[in-house]
# Entry
Amino acid sequence: MNYQNREKRLPTKEEREAKKEQNRKDAEMVPAARKKADDAFRANFERLKAERLAREAAGNHSAFCWKANSRDERHPDRNGRGRRGPSSNYQ
# Structure
């Protein structure tokens, strides 16, 4: 292998200016991309919130709430007293 010490070539003035311009363009694109992602997230959040509120208004809240269905007569070990006894916090 050749381990000679090579000198690093310094960029020319035009190359430095081109790199600065590229960095400036990249810096301008970042906030626009971030805003686009934030807007998409907010729109999805609002859509899901509206769907949840519609379900709750329709009275179907218990179908989507795990706590409402956790004490079911079909599952005696989930009715407050599980396999671990009455003092257990496990439900």
Notes: Residues 19 and 38 are 29 Å apart (CA to CA).
